[in-house]
Every structure is written in C-alpha cells, then in structure tokens.
C-alpha cells in the first residue's frame, strides 16, 4: 500500500474502529503504535472490500466523468461537435478556424465512439500493398477524438506554473509509481514566487483484450489514490500515440488554458525538475518556445525491420520537418493551445513526435535544441560509463532511458552529497 489516500477513498468504518487515542486511557508508546497500525490495516481492508464490492467497472468509469459534462454540452457548441459525420470529412473541413480559438468547448465534448473503418481504401492498389499495421492505421486515421474515461478537470485549479504530463500505458503501474516518488512529485511552489507543479499521466485502454477488465479496475483504484490519470477510450498501441498527443492538446485547451508551461515526457526517462525550473525562470510564457532534443532533416526510415519504418505511400518526402524527440520537451501553454488548432488541420501521422513537428511547421515555429535534453541517451554507446554517472544526470534536464529500479537508484545518487566538476554545467 503506497500511501494513505488523501481523498476519494472513504473509510466509512474508521471512526468506530479507531477512536482517537487521546480520548482513551494512556498506553505505552509501543502499544499505541501497534494499535494504530492494526486499526489502519483493518480500516484499509474494509475500505478496499467495500469499494470493490460496491462498484462494477461501468460505475468506475461513469463516476469519474466530470459531473458538469452533460449540462455544459447542452449549452455549448458554437464549434462543430466531433461526431460520426465529421469523421468522414477531411480534417481541413472540420477544423475550427484559428480565430475561434477562444470559443472552444467548456468540457470534453466527445461522448460516443462511432467511427467505422474507411473501407473506401480497400479498393486502392497502393493500400493493398501495405503492411497490416499501416492498413489498420489508415482504416481508422479519420477517427480523431474519443470519449474520456478518467478525467481531472480540477487539476489546473489555483495557481499552477508547470504541468508535467507523462505518456504511460495501463500495465506499467511500476513506472508511474517510481515517477511519483521521484521527478513527478507535485510541488506547491516552483520557487521564486511561482505557482505549483502538477503531474498527470496520459493513458488509453489496454491494447490486449484479456488485460482490459482486470487492469481497468486497478487503474481506477490507482486513480482514486492519486487523482493523476487522464484516460481516453482508444487502444494504447504504438500507432495510436499520436492520438494521445492530440487528445492531450485538446484537453489542455479546455481544462488548463492558462498554465504558463508544460513539460511532456515519456515514462522511462530521468528528469531533473530543479534544472527544468531553473531553465524556465528566465523564460516568458508568451515565447514561441519548444525546447528539447531536436532533430533536423531526419529522414523517414525505410527499412522494414525498424520500429519507425514508414512506407513511401504514407510519407513520400525525403526528410521530416524539425522535431523534438518525444522523450521529453518543454513548451508554454499558449503555444500548446495554438498547436492544438494547428494539428487539427493535419491528417494524423503514426509517429507522434514527428507529427508534432508537422504541427509546429504549420505555425512556423522552430523547435530549439538544448544540450540538457538527452532523449536518445547521454552516449549512444550503451556501455559508456557516462550512462551511469550521477554527475551527468545532475547536470541534465532529461535523460532517456531509465526503468524504475535504475530511476530510483539514480535519483538517490543525484540527491546525495555528490562532488561534481563544474565542467558539467549545461544551463
Ligand atoms: C468514401 O467514399 C464515399 C463515396 O465516394 C465518400 O462519400 C466518403 O466520404 C468516403 N469516405 C472517406 C472516409 O473518405
Ligand atoms: C453510428 O453511425 C452509423 C453510420 O454513420 C449510424 O447508422 C448509427 O446509427 C450510428 N450509431 C450511433 C450509436 O450513433
Ligand atoms: C487506435 O484506437 C482505436 C480505438 O480504440 C482502434 O479502433 C484502432 O484500431 C487503433 N489504431 C491502431 C493503429 O492501433
Ligand atoms: C551532506 O553534507 C552535509 C554537509 O556537508 C551534511 O550535513 C549532510 O549530513 C550530508 N548528507 C548526507 C546524506 O551524507
């Protein structure tokens, strides 16, 4: 049991089970401790049992929808709602003009999934020649937005300075746990009179049918404990990562439109929040800043055995627009909102970080490279000693790739009394 839930999880019997110790006869300290532990364990057991018995998965999902969703949807839209008819149009036809940016929906306005495969494609020769995963992608490419299963409209309440958002998948609870204990820990203040730092994880649904029910219940429980999960009703597959990107941007436009800065990253990276906040201290939220590990003139990979292989039929140009590796990057909230509208004018592309590069190109914004973002590893040589050197990690902003045990160990080292040479300063 990681922590005692702060909210959401009611422990109805706690009052009766464990009357405050102060009202009771004095015990020895040891007895008190044992008594307290027993009470707590019992209360948690009762709570978990009551909670599990009383809710079906359907209820889990309904409960977590924002209570205001329905009425606000009724009052709303000036903007065409994304419905089954729009799915069949070219995104250019349904995109909201940029000038309407301030008149978006007040709540998540997609409540049904009714999007069928684009069977028109089956008659086309170039399509028939594609690998199955690309055919699957193209069949559903026009399905842009899905309903929300877990939402936290309250997350940006109050004075939030930095929103940390992390792509995660339902089965990798251990990564989320390690991040919550390390770089994802929320702060009431970013220092220097700045507002809070808040963290959210972005998820779709389990990609394997047999994992779905079981993991969905666990996830709903995890969300009750921490209140930091945003989940949408699409399969969490590699080619659906771009959906995660656009769903987050749309969410931000609705629920977090005024946040000064956003850090977006993967769940297998090391982040140094102290350095991020120091870096941001000299920046303005109005800047056209998109900073990360930037690739210029990257070529689409044409080798079929590569994870990032793209057939010529899907992208025929020789190189991609400049883009930042998806492992971790920073941007102001104002730019993220403009990106949301820019991305809505483009057809989806299966590689999410390249897709964001395409959206930036629409806006005419150049991503900025920074030494401190090592989303392709500190050294490309896996065996390099640098990949295990805490002084490097202390000097960086983001480093790929660390799994939970390595992350926890490195976090401990970086926050111990290290003596590092000044040569390593990158800020
Ligand atoms: C499929 O073809 C029909 C008829 O040509 C057209 O009306 C429809 O928009 C097409 N669907 C898509 C997704 O392009
Ligand atoms: C889904 O779309 C199809 C065709 O566009 C329509 O016939 C059907 O009624 C829709 N179903 C729902 C539940 O909206
Ligand atoms: C993306 O998610 C949708 C909705 O769950 C699903 O229909 C589609 O097959 C997924 N696409 C890919 C390429 O996995
Ligand atoms: C680190 O150093 C300071 C003073 O140099 C000392 O007070 C502190 O106990 C040390 N912490 C650890 C974990 O060794």
Description of the structure:
This protein is of the alpha/beta class. It has a domain at 148-374: Spore Coat Polysaccharide Biosynthesis Protein SpsA, Chain A, CATH 3.90.550.50. It has 16 helices and 13 strands. It has helices spanning 14-17, 29-54, 57-64, 69-75, 84-87, 91-94, 125-128, 132-139, 173-181, 209-226, 241-255, 273-280, 333-343, 352-363, 390-395, 404-414, and strands at 148-150, 160-167, 196-205, 229-235, 261-266, 269-271, 291-292, 294-295, 323-324, 328-332, 368-369, 373-374, 398-400. Strands 1-4-3-2-5-10 form a 6-stranded mixed beta sheet, with helices on both faces. It has a 3-stranded mixed beta sheet with strand order 6-13-12, covered by helices on one side. The protein has a two-stranded parallel sheet with strand order 7-11. Helix 9 links the parallel strand 2 (160-167) and strand 3 (196-205). Helix 11 crosses helix 13, helix 11 packs across helix 14 (352-363) and helix 13 crosses helix 14 (352-363). The two termini are 38 Å apart. The structure holds 2-acetamido-2-deoxy-beta-D-glucopyranose (4 copies). Residues 84, 112, 114 line the site of one 2-acetamido-2-deoxy-beta-D-glucopyranose. Keywords: Glycoprotein, Glycosyltransferase, Golgi apparatus, Membrane, Signal-anchor, Transferase, Transmembrane, Transmembrane helix. Its EC number is 2.4.1.-. It is found in: Golgi apparatus membrane. It holds the Pfam family Galactosyl_T.
């Amino acid at each position: 049991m990681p922590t005692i839930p702060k909210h959401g999880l009611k422990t109805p019997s706690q009052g009766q089970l464990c009357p405050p110790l102060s009202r009771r006869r004095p015990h020895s300290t040891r007895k008190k401790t044992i008594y307290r532990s027993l009470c707590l364990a019992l209360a948690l057991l009762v709570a978990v049992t009551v909670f599990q018995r009383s809710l079906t998965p359907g209820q889990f999902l309904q409960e977590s929808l924002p209570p205001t969703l329905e009425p606000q949807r009724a009052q709303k839209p000036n903007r065409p709602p994304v419905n089954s008819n729009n799915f069949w149009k070219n995104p250019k036809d349904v995109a909201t003009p940029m000038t309407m940016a301030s008149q978006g929906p007040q709540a998540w306005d997609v409540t049904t999934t009714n999007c069928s495969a684009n069977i028109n494609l089956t008659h086309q020769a170039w399509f028939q020649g594609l690998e199955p995963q690309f055919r699957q992608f193209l069949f559903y490419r026009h399905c842009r937005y899905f309903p929300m299963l877990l939402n936290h409209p309250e997350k940006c309440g109050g004075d939030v300075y930095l929103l940390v958002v992390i792509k995660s998948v339902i089965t990798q609870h251990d990564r989320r746990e390690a991040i919550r204990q390390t770089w994802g820990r929320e702060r009431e203040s970013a220092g220097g009179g700045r507002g809070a730092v808040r963290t959210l994880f972005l998820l779709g649904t389990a990609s394997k049918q047999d994992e779905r029910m079981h993991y969905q219940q666990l996830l709903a429980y995890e969300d009750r404990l921490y209140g930091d999960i945003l989940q949408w009703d699409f399969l969490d597959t590699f080619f659906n990562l771009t959906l995660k990107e656009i769903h987050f941007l749309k969410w931000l436009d609705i629920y977090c439109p005024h946040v000064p800065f956003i850090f977006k990253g993967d769940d297998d990276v090391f982040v140094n929040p102290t350095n991020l906040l120091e870096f941001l201290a000299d920046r303005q939220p109005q800047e056209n800043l998109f900073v990360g590990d930037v690739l210029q003139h990257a070529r689409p990979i044409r080798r079929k055995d590569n994870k990032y292989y793209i057939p010529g039929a899907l992208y025929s140009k020789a190189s991609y627009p400049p883009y930042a590796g998806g492992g971790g990057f920073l941007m102001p909230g104002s730019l993220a909102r403009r990106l949301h509208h820019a991305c809505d004018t483009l057809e989806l592309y299966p590689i999410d970080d390249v897709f964001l590069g395409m959206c930036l190109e629409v806006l005419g914004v150049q991503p900025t490279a920074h030494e401190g973002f090592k989303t392709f590893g500190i050294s490309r040589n896996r065996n390099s000693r640098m990949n295990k050197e805490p002084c490097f990690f202390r000097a960086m902003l983001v480093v790929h790739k660390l799994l939970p045990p390595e992350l926890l160990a490195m976090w401990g080292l970086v926050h111990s009394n290290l003596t590092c040479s000044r040569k390593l300063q990158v800020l």
